[in-house]
Amino acid sequence: MHKTSWVSRLTRLRHFGQSTGVFNLFESTYGYSMVFADGVSNLSATYDSASGTVTQVCPFAGLQLAMIPLEGSSPSTFLINWVNSTVVLPEGSSTTSLVPGNGAFLTTMGSSDGISEFDQNGVFKEITVDGALTFAWVDETFEENQDVTSWIDIFNGSAITC
User: Is 116 helix (H, G, I), strand (E, B) or coil?
Assistant: First the structure.
């Protein structure tokens, strides 16, 4: 079993530069959503290539990273939530669609953009749902999102401490 550990650093790529930040968690319908933040975060997880799941180590050990469809969204939008493995998720949800690649997590959902360096399906970004900001994946191109995307960076976290 291969496990890749990562820390919750966010990277936003823009056509004219980039910025970084971290994620904070807040309670949501199915578990915990992520929101962009400044400062320090101890959010960390491991990726298990055998099961295809991302499992949180800190601060809530055992939660799995899930992509949950946002009902009625166009283009297709999936909320990125940390959930307990016993929670019943809506149809179309997945706990195995986020995979490591190119130093950041990518998704197997949507259509490939065909750009080899950033072979990403859709874009990760912060959206507003019921008045609250949350991290999500949207099935649109970089161009449709004004050449901006966000990434969940992967680090060697072999010495993760909470």
Answer: helix
